[in-house]
Design goal:
Radius of gyration: 20 Å
CATH architecture of the largest domain: 2-Layer Sandwich
Number of strands: 5
Distance between the termini: 58 Å
Strand order of the largest sheet: 3-2-1-4-5
Structural class: alpha/beta
CATH class of the largest domain: Alpha Beta
């Protein structure tokens, strides 16, 4: 039933705006302390038999990886990313938009080849705001929908592509960046990860702006907001 709702909602958008195809876009890794932020762009080619597609957050790791293997038979998709250094330089919002734009630009040629150069292409982004690169593009019919990864089939597909691709990168990083638990936490701020940062400091793969903020928050919880200034005096 849930899958039917995803497919029907997407079809409803296509019918309302007279679209030939929808490209769904979603991100992964926005809240992590380390590693890149990833974006997926996905266009469904055959919705039949796509019950495996769902919001990646609702799938287990095994289910996501199985879905990723099945996705090419039913969709065209690409990913894009922004590094930890880009996140520190641009801020997480603009770095995420850059990753989304990369994914979309990589996918568009294949979409236009399949549906025709003059096809009406819609773009649905998961979130409350439309990225500036889509606002400027007059050739696409673009919209931002909150929780689109849970309501629009192509966006759910994009969420799987982004999440599985990023997780694979983080597990690969764990083989050369040791001691932070990337193989399990994929860069998110688990207790093990925070404890390692206190002892080792950040690696080159960490988002320095995120780490400073998160360690300060953890320190507040440890010492208490009112006790924190006194604790600092005695360091």
């Amino acid at each position: 039933m849930r899958h039917e709702a995803l497919a029907l909602f997407e079809q409803g958008i296509k019918s309302r705006y007279e679209l030939d195809v929808i490209i769904g876009i979603d991100e992964a890794g926005r809240g992590a302390l380390a590693g890149p932020v990833y974006a997926g762009a996905c266009a469904i080619t055959d919705p039949r038999g796509t019950t495996f597609i769902n919001d990646s957050k609702l799938l287990s790791q095994n289910q996501r990886e199985q879905a990723f293997e099945l996705l090419p038979a039913h969709a065209l998709f690409e990913t894009g990313s922004s590094t930890a250094a880009e996140i520190d330089e641009l801020g997480i919002v603009q770095a995420t938009y850059r990753a989304m734009e990369k994914a979309l630009m990589r996918l568009l040629p294949a979409v236009r080849e399949r549906w025709g150069a003059g096809s009406r292409i819609g773009v649905v982004v998961d979130g409350p705001l439309l990225p500036s690169f889509l606002v400027r593009d007059e050739h696409l019919i673009s919209m931002a929908i909150i929780d689109a990864d849970a309501t629009v089939l192509s966006v759910a597909g994009a969420s799987i592509a982004a999440k599985v691709s990023r997780d694979a990168v983080m597990r690969s990083l764990a083989r050369r960046v040791h001691g932070y638990g990337f193989e399990g936490n994929v860069g998110y701020g688990t207790k093990q990860h925070i404890d390692a940062l206190r002892v080792k400091g950040p690696s080159d793969e960490h988002r320095r702006t995120f780490v400073v903020k998160r360690l300060a928050e953890a320190e507040e919880l440890l010492f208490g907001q009112t006790a924190q200034p006194d604790a600092r005096k005695h360091r």
